[in-house]
Structure formats: C-alpha cells, structure tokens
C-alpha cells in the first residue's frame, strides 16, 4: 500500500516494539488464569507499559480496565449467536460516503498543564475543489507522518453547508495515537459526521517512545475527562480552538466510540468512573456508545455499574481476540447492560484485536521499503500476528463490516432510521450478531 511513509512506519513500529504483552490496566483475579501476563495497559498496536501498582488499585468500580488474556477454555466464543430475528433480505454493505473529507488538527488548551491535540474530520462542501488541497499528513513528529489517500488538509470554512452534523468522538487504545484508525474516522466523516479524536496526553505512542507516560491511575481518570473536554469544545462555536468546526456540529447528537482502552473510555462516559483521584460523572450529552474490542474488567466496572448503561450501544469485537477476549470483556458488558436499547453485539468471525487499527497496512508496506532494520520488520510481524495473519479476517472485510454496522446504528439512533437489521439485511456467515 502506498499510504504509509517510511518514517511513520518505522516510528510506529518502534512504538509497537515497546509493547508489554496484554492490554490490561488492572487484573481481575476472578477471571485471569495464574499464568496471566503482567497487568499493564498495553494495546498491542500502540505501546505502553503502565502496570497498575496494587497500592493504586481502588475498589472494584474505581480502577482502570482489564484486558486480561483469557485461558483457552474462556476464549472467544464459537460463531453461534443467541437466536435473533433477522431481516429476510441479503446483507447489504454500505457504499462510499457522499462527502470528500477534510481534516484539521487543533489544540485544546483550556487546561494549560495538559493541552490536548485533536484531529477533526469533517464533510467538505461539494463546491470544494479537492485538487487544490493537499492530502492530509498525519504527523507524529516533524518529518514523521503518513499520507491519507482519501482525506485532505482543510479548514472548517470548507465544511459542508448541509449540516449541522452529529459529533462522534473517538478514543484511541493505550499508548496509541488519535489517528491510529484513520480509515474508520475518515469513513464516518465521509457519511456526514464530524469526528474528533484526541491524543490522550500521558498515554500516547510518542510518550512511550520517549520513555514517559503518566501513572495508570492518572491515565484512567484523565481519559473520560479528555472526552468530556472534546465534547465541550466541539459543541461550542465560541471555543477559541474548535469554534469554526463546532459551528457545524449538532450539539444534541453526540456519540462516543473507542478501541480497547478507548473502549473502557467509551463505556465510562455512560457509567461514570471514579478512583482515588476523583469522580467522573456520567456525561448526559452522550446519546450512544460504540466500544470496539473494549477492555471491561470487574475492577473497572462492577456488574451494577454496567447495568446503569441506558443509552443505545453497539459493541463490535473480533471472535478471536486474545488481548481483550470476548469472554470476559464483551460477555460481561452484554450480560449486564440490559437497559441499553437498541443494543447490538457484533462479532467478526476470525477478527482479532488489531483488526480495529491500521496495523495491517503497516505490515504490508514495511517489507518493501529499503534499509528497514530487521528488528522493526520482526516487531511489526509479531504485532500483526493478532489481526493480519493468513487465517484472520481480511482487513478490507473488517472495514466493510465495521462501517456498515456502525453507520446503520448511527442512522437508527440519531436519524430515526430503520433498525440495523432492516438496514443491513441478514447477517453474513462471517458475523455473529445479536440484538435487543
């Protein structure tokens, strides 16, 4: 693939090389086997080693999420879902979005001690001549970037006049980056959403490379507060940083989505979260949540906390995920969040943890580049084993299914559209689907 530049691939690969094992934030000893790896907050695409010390572990509902690798006997379920009435029509994948996509990077400095770098994707006005715009370069540090094949660097004055548009906030995994799944955020924007994704300061790949990063308890408390700050800015046309884009946002339609530790962040917006640093209350502005391969431990969320989720939810996971296995993570969420309606559980057969990032694109490109140290190639190959192997779901198919189901869900809950099943048809053989 041509979208990745050499420098970004090397930098992101080095970030992955710092990865510490499982994506745990705090181990749930009631589910983890004795041989579980150290409890850290590592997303195997986005490296961070932030083991939660026992002394910082708060009561069961107040710690950061677990992503404990389950034993084989509790691994991802077989491809048999609970009985669900399905539409009697063929599965219909979503088409391309009608909008070209603009991207702007802003800085939220409402907290001078902890500014947030945020990428904002938005639908471009039809009158915009994209041939005059430069492809967006997602920049890690000066000179380290990759270039999008479909999105363009633009300012919000080019935002489509068709709005206001719903706001979707994306939360990256531990040790990740705001644009780690740009194929997903770009797709949402092309279908008429303004998407904002912060770098979670203190928990990014860049800080990991530099040997930094915040304490796990601090990270866990900061994450939902980061999302709150993004919503504040993106729904306030008077905000000095986000105002021009916020003018095109429908403040009454807000959705949060995120991967892995970002899945924890997503859920926390609907349940609230607290630890020794303070309490984060439920953000009542959030109309729906979409956790992707989420980290859901009983240390982070009690069953009672999950039972308070009363907004629509779609949880998407790979059936073969071994970093945040379906059981216990998605199983606990689905079994307890019974007030959520409509609520959907989508399992991608042979999907894995890295199926919800752009890692496979890096793996495709690196071996073809000159002068790449063997350790970099080896690292990406190792990380890519969980999502980019021959027996894993093809990345293009993952994108097709994810975009189809998420966009149908958003249309249903925000625009009074048909149910997900009515919109998409009978689930294909490579999807395990449940609805309530």
UniProtKB/TrEMBL annotation:
User: What superkingdom heads the lineage?
Assistant: Bacteria
Write one Gene Ontology MF term: 1-alkyl-2-acetylglycerophosphocholine esterase activity
Signal recorded as keyword: yes
Q: Short name of one Pfam family for this protein? A: PAF-AH_p_II
BP GO terms, sorted? lipid catabolic process
The record, for Gene3D superfamilies, names:
alpha/beta hydrolase
* Alphabetical list of PROSITE patterns matching this protein: PROKAR_LIPOPROTEIN
Region span, Disordered: 18-96
Signal peptide boundaries: 1-20
Q: Which UniProt keywords apply?
A: Hydrolase, Lipid degradation, Lipid metabolism, Signal
Biased amino acid composition, Low complexity:
28-88
Q: Which InterPro entries match?
A: AB_hydrolase_fold
Q: Which PANTHER family match?
A: PLATELET-ACTIVATING FACTOR ACETYLHYDROLASE
Q: What is this protein called?
A: Putative dienelactone hydrolase
Q: Which organism is it from?
A: Ilumatobacter fluminis
